[in-house]
């Protein structure tokens, strides 16, 4: 028993003396709880969604309805597409309103709108609802890619540093950027290949047919994975403590779990939530993949997402190479 207590005591001392690990163990759960409370603690959440195009004259009367969220769209085509796929319950334009007769929620919202603006002309648009699995699949695959990229690279490099592998590589002609590039490319190939297999199998099982170009989907998956691997390399570039590295990776991955549209859509969310989400690479990966699979978006339509992912990749790799330490 004496030996057992001695080992427990020594391990506790090791943990307490690692100030970074101790700090993350205390700070991370508090940060997570506060963040989740700020994002999701909303007792006045709207029940229905109405899309708005332009400034319809009847909008002021309609906005007196309670528990309804109004989402502004730039074009009538975009609003009609959202109504057709049951992504919003009804859309109001300057010419009238659009509703999908197959949408039960749309039928309820139409009656509410009609009670406030009976003179508004009705336009019907048809289309099937986006199935839940169809919407969820890109997010689940994106989440799996994120964990594989961040922990599969970042944690491994930290372990290499702790175990002395990097110290031995330092005496070889290998440069820091070559080492980082090797980690990036090897992991990138493995993650994209496994994600492609998972997507194809799931698409066959649930009869999901991407509306857009599958090759474009492959491009977004590659750029998204590269962005998240580069962030993992950035975290691991000068970190020796596995506990500290794990804390930072948790701090990066958990916001993406909740704010990158894996489980629910951020459409119509609070503006500050959307601003934070736009800084996360998984948000751009999921938005681009869903736009291709569900909306049939082309390269121009998702170009902004691809530019952000490319910028994150280049910026993170440059900083990681600059601050990389072999020991």
Key descriptive features of the protein:
327 residues, alpha/beta, 2 domains, 5-stranded mixed β-sheet, 13 helices
Q: What's the arrangement of secondary structure elements?
A:
Layout (H helix, E strand, L loop, with lengths): L1 H16 L1 H22 L7 E6 L5 H4 L5 E6 L2 H9 L5 E4 L2 E4 L4 H13 L5 E3 L7 H32 L1 H6 L5 H31 L7 H23 L5 H18 L11 H8 L2 H15 L7 H21 L4
Parallel strand pairs: 1-2, 1-3, 4-5
Antiparallel strand pairs: 3-4
Task: Describe the structure concisely.
The protein has 327 residues and is an alpha/beta fold.
Written description of the protein model:
- The protein has 327 residues and is an alpha/beta fold.
- The protein has 2 domains: 1-38 and 131-323; 48-124, no CATH class.
- Helices cover 67% and strands 7% of the residues.
- The chain has 13 helices and 5 strands.
- The chain has helices spanning 2-17, 19-40, 59-62, 76-84, 104-116, 132-163, 165-170, 176-206, 214-236, 242-259, 271-278, 281-295, 303-323; strands at residues 48-53, 68-73, 90-93, 96-99, 122-124.
- Strands 2-1-3-4-5 form a 5-stranded mixed beta sheet.
- A hairpin with a 2-residue loop joins strand 3 (90-93) and strand 4.
- Helix 6 packs antiparallel against helix 10 (242-259), helix 8 (176-206) crosses helix 9 (214-236) and helix 9 (214-236) packs antiparallel against helix 12 (281-295).
- The longest helix is centred in the middle third of the chain and has 32 residues, at 132-163.
- The protein is elongated and about 80 Å long.
- The mean pLDDT is 85.
- Residues 102-327 form the ABC transmembrane type-2 domain.
- Its main location: membrane.
- Keywords: Cell membrane, Membrane, Transmembrane, Transmembrane helix, Transport.
